[in-house]
Amino acid sequence: MLKRFIAYYRPHKTIFTLDMLASLAVALVGLVYPIVTRTMLNDLIPNRNYRMIVAAGITLLVLYLVKMLLNYFIQYYGHVMGVRMQAQMRSDMFGHLEKLPFSFYDNHETGKIMSRMTSDLMEISELAHHGPENLLISSISIVTSFIYLSSINIWLTLIVFACVPFLILISMKLRKRMKNAFMESRKSTAQINASLESSISGIRVTKAFTNAEKEKEKFEEGNVRFTEARRDAYKAMGQFHSGNTFVTDVFNVVVLIAGGLFLYNGTIQFGDYSAFVVSVHMFIGPVMTLINFMEQYQNGVTGFERFIEIIDAEPEKDAEDAVDAGQLEGHIEFRDVTYAYDSDKDVLNHVSLTIGQGKKFALVGPSGGGKTTICHLIPHFYDVTSGQILIDGKEIHTLTMESLRRNIGIVQQDIYLFNASMKENILYGRLDATDEEVIEAAKRANIHDYIMSLPNGYDTEIGERGVRLSGGQKQRLSIARVFLKNPPILILDEATSALDNTTEILIQQALDDLCAGRTTLVVAHRLSTIKNADEIAVVSDGNIIEQGTHDELLAKDGTYAELYKLQFRANSML
What we know:
The protein is of the alpha/beta class. 64% of the residues lie in helices and 10% in strands. The protein has 19 helices and ten strands. Strands 6-7-8-3-9-10 form a six-stranded mixed beta sheet, with helices on both faces. A four-stranded antiparallel beta sheet has the order 2-1-4-5, covered by helices on one side.
């Protein structure tokens, strides 16, 4: 893991090197004050050398001005380096998230992913900046302070440094506890972010059903878990700091007693003793810095581990010999396909079907029967457990996913629109399309006139998830997107089931135009919309139990006929 972390420093070698040199200079400047103090106490003051006293003071002032500039460089450019590394990690994570399969998002909440990309990466950025400089400054300061203090009195120095093992033992004992506590704290933060994201996204549903208290109750459950996790983290941190601070305080007691005894016995001069008392803080300061660094280290390491979990998630991969699909014609075949989202239960059981090029094939049946799963397998969103799916005689695993999906257009019941303009949402179908092509796609989707009635026309912002549009307008916008893409294969997954009858008729006209000349797979709730399909399959419990044309299935007087009669009876009662 360390190698992977260090790799993010490579593009910033120049800034990092200068930052380390500046840190080294700051550490060396810190050594000047105790040296000057000892010289003044033992030589300049007793000998009443006022000129040198003033010169020493001016020298210190100049060095402190240089130190101020160096600290500015460290703080500014060091943080800039950290932010750039954070931006690179965020870019790597986002790029990897784009490559992850549907199954990853089935098992990970959006809020938790966002937490890893924001707060976790912020902690990593702080570690990336402060970690190396704190280690360098502290290490150099500890070594130089040992050398300098030894030059004053080696035995007193050894006595002081004898306290270091106790500090190390306490740190090691409490470090693991603090790491585990902060990991749990990270998880609770991700959980509360996920809950918040879900509640805000569903605020309109919450208000419609007057369930604000329920949402508050759910949020408070996560909030309590977060509070408890942070409490445990702070408890571990408090134990860590209090234990280590006690040991560092012992340093002062050791210096006071041992130094006083040495002074009493005449083994050390008063000036040297005074310089030692001043200089010992040159050692305690870096020790405290390292202690504080442990907290930052735990935060950063915990965040990087969670970052690595995302980066190491298995992405979608084309087969080694996968080829570009080119322009497909649209002949689709399922050969004995079985699929399961997990190992407990198959969603599809040995499904075989054929959809001819340019034909309209409909799937009907009860919810949860496997209709949408069939739709998701064709673009290779999931890998089949067994069996084969072929398009134009080519097994889809032998085609690159990008080229395969380029040939498939999907219109779903739950339309996702981006918080952008009308034009940008249509352009999502084909980003290099011209304005004329966008307008033509909108016209064919029967939404051009509505767009032109808006104050800003195609540049009108539609709000988050298209909140400013009606259900029918959202659907027509998504249809325009597919018109612009112009794929040979079309999947309509209950595209009109959430619309009222009047709006459905308007949308259906656009869909009929969209289906013309394309191989179309339709998942339908209202059977009246697929009466003219070339073939209809009834899917139940992962099996195709009936297949044929509308008239053939009615003549069989089986499940399809029963569903049709129920809908016909329900419609006649309206």
